[in-house]
Automatic annotation (TrEMBL):
The keyword Transferase applies. CDD domains: Glyco_tranf_GTA_type (cd00761). Pfam families: Glycos_transf_2. Keywords: Transferase. InterPro entries: Glyco_trans_2-like, Glycosyltransf_2, Nucleotide-diphossugar_trans. This is Glycosyl transferase family 2. GO terms for biological process: single-species biofilm formation. SUPFAM superfamilies: Nucleotide-diphospho-sugar transferases (SSF53448). Residues 6-165 form the Glycosyltransferase 2-like domain. GO terms for molecular function: transferase activity.
């Protein structure tokens, strides 16, 4: 019997792209057994779009819950999924036609795997192609997860039993929950990447990663400290120091300019945050980290 895949689509105020996203899952060359839309307390027309999709496609179900964040929405979908494998598809992204087939081929090659992920295209809000983020074929280590490997949810396929073994996503972590979950997943199974393109990552002004630009970096550091700090799951002070320097170098890139611009506009709180990142980047450079766009930086 062929492996079964459930696609979970967490959706918050996603009416603009949700139908296109779901149709990319419906059009898979290896179809999922179900597509579970989890409407996370949206205030726009997401609920209506989700219900319409469920009414017209027997593979699609729509679940509505109070807003609890991405981790809670994914856990809700995970608890309802029947598949052996889970693909969390963000409601503004879309899968390429052979995404599930490519992922399952890698799982077949690596029966120990808890998770696999592939390369992705980048598109704008109209769907125009902007470029490709290639991913090498490799067995990912915990050090690489700490230092550079941060795939988006839509480019991954998970073994459901592995997600259940780690208790799903930590809902207390508001941002970087996927990074934190991956650091626990590698404790129960392998993580493997492959070079085939599996999804289109959409860049647009409303996406959460843009709106949380000043919030995401501190959460990322919290996740690293949770895992590699003195009371962490895998204490490693040297790796923690290197990883924090690496990410502060990235997050602080050109933040001195952001701080100056914010000061000129009278946005003092924004200037303070940007100044902190700029200072941490300067400190990271003394530790040998000097991230720049276009430099090798992972997925």
């Amino acid at each position: 019997m062929a492996p079964s895949v459930s696609v979970v689509v967490p959706a918050f105020n996603a009416e603009k792209y949700l139908e296109e996203t779901v149709h990319s899952a419906l059009g898979q060359s290896v179809p999922p057994i179900e597509i579970i839309i989890v409407n996370d307390g949206s205030s726009d027309g997401t609920a209506k779009v989700a219900d319409q999709l469920a009414a017209t496609h027997p593979e699609v179900t729509a679940t509505h819950r109070p807003n609890g964040g991405a981790a809670a929405a994914r856990n809700t979908g995970l608890s309802r999924a029947r598949g052996e494998f889970i693909l969390f598809l963000d409601a503004d992204d879309r899968l390429t036609e052979d995404a599930i087939r490519h992922h399952l081929e890698v799982f077949e090659q690596h029966p120990d795997a808890a998770m696999v992920f592939g390369s992705n295209n980048v598109i704008d809000e109209t769907g125009t192609f902007l470029g490709t983020n290639p991913v090498p074929q490799e067995n990912v280590t915990i050090a690489e997860l700490a230092m550079r490997v941060t795939p988006s949810q839509s480019q991954c396929l998970y073994r459901k039993s592995a997600l259940e073994a780690i208790g799903g996503y930590d809902e207390a972590i508001r941002y970087s929950q996927d990074i934190e979950a991956n650091l626990r997943l590698i404790q129960v199974g392998g993580i493997h990447s492959h070079d085939r393109v599996v999804m289109d990552y959409r860049r647009h002004q409303a996406q959460s990663t843009r709106k949380s630009g000043r919030i995401f970096p501190p959460w990322h550091i919290i996740v690293l400290e949770k895992h590699f700090g003195p009371a962490g799951l895998t204490p490693d002070p040297d790796l923690l120091r290197k990883a924090k320097a690496r990410w502060y170098s990235k997050y602080g890139y050109r933040q001195h300019r952001v701080a100056l611009g914010a000061l000129r506009r009278g946005r003092f709180s924004e200037a303070i945050v940007a100044s902190k990142f700029a200072f941490m980047r300067l400190k990271a450079r003394f530790q040998g980290e000097n991230w720049r766009p276009g430099s090798p930086r992972g997925n």
